[in-house]
């Protein structure tokens, strides 16, 4: 496929290739510089497309931002959802271990991109609303799986935010007074206790 001249590729395929180049370039620049410090010319240059070609697909930088992070959500978070769906309800401790390590790896690999998204969500209510709706898909995945472990919805929400917090700490340690490994272990123990307490109830 790599040796086929671009002009011989189907138009739809060329269009998708162009889209992916733009998204990849924009994602890199947003992660490196942030949304506001990145301009359309830089995105087009890094993507290797003309300004006209970029504007033929996107009306402005914000539209690119939405497409970049929609794509990011589905490509990066799908493995987390799949891991949730494949969990063994008879081995909760192994499940918690895998869940924590998955989140830590996810944040280590994508910490700057996630921080950029959070900054944009904090500054723009419409962006915040859009991506909270995306996040609801992941939270629902948590609910579907953790309810099988007899964990209440309230504790599922607590678990979800704790996992994001520990992932963030591993990608960019903020609270240096706490030992990171011990903090990770405490979150694991708390999640295990959530199930034990619910079983007692």
Structure commentary:
The longest helix has 32 residues, at 92-123. The chain is built from eight helices and no strands. The chain is mainly alpha-helical. It has two domains: 1-59, Orthogonal Bundle (Arc Repressor Mutant, subunit A); 66-200, Tetracycline Repressor, domain 2, CATH 1.10.357. Helices cover 77% and strands 0% of the residues. The mean pLDDT is 83. The chain is elongated, with a radius of gyration of 20 Å.
Quick overview of this protein structure:
With 201 residues, this protein is an all-alpha fold. The protein has helices spanning 11-33, 40-47, 51-55, 61-85, 92-123, 125-146, 153-171, 180-200.
Question: Which terms summarize this structure?
Answer:
single chain, 201 residues, mainly alpha, Arc Repressor Mutant, subunit A, Tetracycline Repressor, domain 2, 8 helices, 0% strand, elongated
């Amino acid at each position: 496929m790599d040796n086929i001249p671009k002009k011989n590729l189907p138009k739809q395929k060329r269009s998708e290739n162009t889209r992916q180049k733009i998204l990849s370039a924009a994602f890199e620049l947003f992660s490196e510089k942030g949304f506001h410090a990145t301009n359309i010319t830089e995105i087009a240059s890094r993507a290797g497309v003309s300004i006209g070609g970029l504007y033929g697909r996107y009306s402005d930088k914000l539209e690119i931002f939405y497409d970049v992070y929609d794509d990011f959500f589905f490509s990066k978070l799908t493995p987390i959802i799949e891991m949730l769906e494949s969990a063994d309800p008879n081995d909760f401790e192994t499940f918690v271990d895998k869940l924590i390590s998955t989140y830590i790896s996810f944040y280590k690999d994508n910490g700057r991109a996630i921080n950029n998204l959070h900054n944009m969500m904090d500054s723009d209510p419409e962006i915040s609303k859009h991506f909270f709706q995306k996040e609801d898909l992941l939270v629902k995945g948590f609910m579907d799986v953790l309810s099988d472990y007899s964990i209440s919805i309230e504790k599922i929400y607590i678990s979800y935010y704790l996992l994001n917090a520990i992932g963030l700490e591993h990608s960019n340690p903020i609270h240096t007074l706490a030992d990171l490994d011990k903090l990770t272990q405490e979150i694991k123990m708390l999640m295990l206790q959530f199930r034990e307490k619910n079983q007692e109830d």
